[in-house]
């Protein structure tokens, strides 16, 4: 196997919780050295989120694999000086504090760019580094709402619900990781100059909103919640089966639609010229949903999926955690990996995406204990043992 594609890249992670650390996780999975700075004592709050094992979140085992942990109180001048020294030797710095926080610590872009002109700085915040809302606090759920997603995730007439995971943060992290790679490429081909990547949570969500804005601009149409359907694209919906399960059926391709109608015994609809294209089907979506729903209601979920698989119509069940863990396809694709908690207990964690044929991502080290790498990283940065003892006494590390 060739060396990891990002081997030799050094990332300094100053963020916490989800968005910034998620971007760093991706880079670490493909070989980057990730040095994570955490506040002494408590560490990253994610260590205490969701379900805990021996006092630490099992989520931590995913979000922080391949990282080194350094305890450093960035509110103190001595720690800020150490962070500047670490930034001098870094290729990438990732942070997701409120805009202005790093500047108050002497760690803003102008300061660090002067020290290390090649540094690439990823800054993730609720509303971005500029604009009238820049100083507002913003979590992923607020970005999901402002970006347009929350309005659509509901049954018509009912309260909009959240997706169920911190999708706004993760989308921001994905866009941030992409921005880092683009900036590194620019640095490579344009003389080594670093730059800032400014990612706003609401913009990462808004970027996923497809035709939402153009439809309003062209037609004055405000897209509304539609439950399990996808307005303007038909037929595609969740259909209840005889055993109470739901089959997700996507019959919206022209050829697929015909095969679906033949499968459910509605050859008349398959041959209807008015349904040959998506525009005609979208206008009669309720009629098509009723026909498919009447068919699925007389069969179990397994029977429905077997029939659709034979007819080569995209369909599937709604997976929960147990379904994922027991599905052979996830394992065949290495999407379920084995890890171990600090006490030796085996645990299954998500695999790595995307999958590169020559330089695939790897899990080279488990998520670190708080401060596990403080001494090694600071020693490498030139901090003496005596200085570390003094810093520890002051609560800086």
Automatic annotation (TrEMBL):
Q: Which domain of life is it from?
A: Bacteria
Question: Which keywords has UniProt assigned to this entry?
Answer: Transferase
Q: Which InterPro entries match?
A: CoA-transferase_III, CoA-Trfase_fam_III, CoA-Trfase_III_dom3_sf, CoA-Trfase_III_dom_1_sf
Q: Does the keyword Transferase apply?
A: yes
Membrane-spanning ranges: none
Q: Is Transferase a UniProt keyword of this protein?
A: yes
Gene Ontology terms for molecular function = transferase activity
Q: Per its record, how is this protein called by name?
A: CoA transferase
């Amino acid at each position: 196997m060739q060396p990891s594609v990002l081997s030799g890249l050094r990332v300094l992670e100053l963020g916490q919780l989800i968005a910034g650390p998620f971007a760093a996780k991706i880079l670490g999975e493909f070989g980057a050295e990730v040095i994570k700075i955490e506040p002494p004592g408590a560490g990253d709050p994610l260590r205490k989120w969701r379900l805990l094992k021996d006092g630490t979140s099992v989520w931590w085992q995913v979000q922080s694999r391949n990282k080194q942990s350094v305890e450093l109180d960035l509110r103190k001048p001595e720690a800020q000086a150490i962070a500047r020294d670490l930034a001098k030797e870094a290729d990438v710095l990732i942070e997701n504090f409120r805009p202005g926080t790093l500047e108050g610590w002497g760690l803003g872009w102008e300061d660090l760019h002067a020290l290390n002109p090649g540094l690439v700085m990823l800054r993730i915040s609720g509303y971005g580094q500029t604009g009238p809302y820049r100083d507002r606090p913003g979590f992923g759920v607020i970005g999901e709402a402002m970006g347009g997603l929350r309005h659509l995730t509901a049954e018509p007439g009912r309260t909009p619900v959240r997706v169920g995971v911190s999708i706004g943060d993760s989308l921001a992290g994905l866009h941030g990781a992409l921005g880092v790679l683009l900036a590194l490429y620019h640095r490579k081909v344009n003389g080594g100059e670093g730059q800032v990547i400014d990612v706003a949570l609401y913009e990462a969500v808004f970027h996923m909103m497809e035709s939402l804005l153009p439809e309003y601009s062209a037609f004055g149409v405000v897209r509304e919640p539609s439950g399990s359907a996808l307005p303007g694209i038909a037929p595609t919906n969740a259909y209840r089966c005889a055993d109470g399960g739901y089959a997700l059926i996507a019959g919206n391709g022209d050829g697929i639609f015909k095969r679906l109608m033949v499968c459910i015994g509605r050859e008349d609809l398959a041959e209807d010229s008015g349904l040959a294209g998506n525009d005609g089907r979208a206008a009669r979506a309720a009629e098509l949903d009723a026909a498919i729903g009447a068919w699925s209601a007389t069969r179990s979920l397994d029977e429905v999926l077997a029939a659709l698989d034979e007819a080569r119509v995209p369909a599937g069940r709604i997976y929960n955690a147990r379904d994922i863990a027991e599905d052979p396809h996830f394992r065949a694709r290495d999407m379920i990996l084995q890890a171990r908690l600090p006490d030796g207990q085996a645990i299954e964690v998500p695999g790595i995406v995307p999958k590169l044929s020559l330089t695939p991502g790897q899990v080279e080290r488990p998520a670190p204990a708080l401060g596990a790498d403080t001494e090694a990283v600071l020693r490498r940065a030139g901090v003496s043992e005596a200085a570390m003892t003094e810093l520890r006494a002051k609560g800086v590390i």
